[in-house]
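tool=predict chain=A
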Amino acid sequence: MSRLVKRALIGGVFIFTLFGLVAFDTVGDRYFQIAKNLDIFATLFKEVNAFYVDEINPNELMKTGINAMLNSLDPYTDYIPEDDIESYRTMTTGQYGGIGALVGKRNGFNTIIMPYEGYPAHKAGLQIGDKILKIDEIEITGMDTEQISQLLKGQSKTTINLTVGRYGVEEPFVLELKREKITINNVPYFGMINEDIGFIKLTDFTTNAGKEVKDAVVKLKEDGAKKIIFDLRGNPGGLLDEAVNVSNVFVPKGAEIVSTKGKVTSWNKTYTAPSEPVDTKIPLVVLTNSGSASASEIVSGVMQDYDRGVLVGRKTYGKGLVQATRPLSYNSQLKITTAKYYIPSGRCIQAIDYSHRNPDGSIGRIPDSLKVAFKTRSGRTVYDGGGVDPDISVEERHYASITIALITGNFVFDYATKYRFENPEIKDAKNFSFSDDEYEDFINWLSEKDMNYVTKVEKNIEILEKAVKDERYFQDIEEELASLKSTAAVNKKGDLKRFKDQIRYMIEEEIISRYYLESGMIEAAFDDDQDILAAIEVLNNPDEYQRLLKAQ
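tool=predict ok
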């Protein structure tokens, strides 16, 4: 008799003595099913490894099996093998030992995408667009970004040598850097949009997120901020405690923030604001979109439930689940969903069906019959069932096919690198403008590049052509199809002029990043970001702001 079966039977006898025959039948059978299936899995795994026709990597096979099992539960329950523990720790703490730079593939090269200000890469003079050719004499051509990341990371105060290729410099050169403990800021930027509106960008909820937001609000008020825009767009969430701390910046001490409820009732808990707030009255707009998830939804939902601020943008992601990590053998861990969370109105914003989403990650339309209504403190009606709805909806900006092709093909990236080499200085981020003459230079530069793209119109013509061929109508409308193709091709030639405004905006933002890094890119958006413009409009209209926060 196997050890697991013995344990199952012992467990069954123990429960019988406590709860009687019915409990024994139920729980004992469950333990037996667990033991039986574990035994089947172990023998199957052994047989496959022994007799499968090709050689098998046992670690990879087991990992595949585990991941397939967990994927049948929810998207957030994950197995973390020992090799990935360091990456997981970086994700939750925002800390690692390295050079402080984001590296990615550009045109086949491992390229500096963003050096973090004040860290070794930045202090050594690495620039966006620099190609890393070698790391400590290790040729890295062909390595993926994960392999590069592992080579760049290491113990603080250890030395690393990078062989770098730079636009405009004929020969590669070597830079010596000393790794440091890198702490990725949760608040990469805060500043004044104008004389009385402050802006805070929160990108993560790792350790100290609440303190960083608190410090930002205090400093903005010192700088004259009478209103605040709090940007949570694209923030995937993080630590639950930090969601509580961030909310506490704007709501009173003792206010309920979130409660969790799961199978293990002893783990259920209600979290309240632990400290005195910074400001419970300052007019506040919270920006959200489909990338605002988990802890971001707690904060934005709390602001809405207490009528503390106006939400502007788009519906949030819809993740109302709480995860905890549980230790496994051999230094691996399980990140497992243990509870659902509920914000002050009593609603859970978990999407009703988290397995089916739109291509951009957003939630599809939820039938009204599946929603449950709740009330904010002032009596406004809000709903559960899938994310937090904004008080002011702003349509997401859609980019033309040519704009997308210029970005994904790295043409905008490469031109900005060229521009940086030819122009040592530019105006500050808020005042820089890419002129009409410079745009013509970009068009001329692009004419020498091999750029091909397919417009939505061309895709639809292809679909139509296939359909009429399948239905055998092609000969009847062949001339009309040819005319459509010709017209589409002619119009396509004018796309650089037709979509000049959005293309120029993307070029401006990329160029500004070369001089002012991430903070510059954020400031560059102030006068063109539709969400920010809508936020400014409502903050400058006190009557409309108050109307939105009251039950109608």
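DSSP finds 18 helices and 21 strands in the chain. Residues 21-51 form the longest helix (31 residues).
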